[in-house]
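Our working data are protein records whose layout never changes between entries. Instead of coordinates, the fold is spelled out as a row of discrete tokens. Here is such a record, shown just as it appears in the course material:
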Amino acid sequence: MIPQRLREPAPPSLVDLLERPALLEDLDLEAIPELLGALEGLKAKLQVRLVELAARARPAEAPDRLLSVAEVAERLAVSEDWLYRSTRKLPFVVRLSPQQLRFSERGLERWIRQRRG
């Protein structure tokens, strides 16, 4: 066992360095890589935690609804006939079959926002 007075002092911890940045001046060459590794590990853990917390804070997005021709015609104040004629120009059209049309509610809302400027 090495007597305490002959042992080299332990390098400062990350907490020590945060509390007293002046300790950086006394760091040995061997201590720096170890501290940098610990700092990078802590940084990665903080980034993961940030992403987790941000995901929880974000409100859950409601699923997209498919609207009927009548619902969309009413919202846009246009005739159902106009909608049928305009399906090739509208980006929110969903074709269920050659004879059945539906409209994405989210797509419709986005289209309306873009048209308003």
Strands lie at 66-67, 93-97, 100-104. The helical segments are 14-19, 31-57, 69-76, 80-86, 105-116.
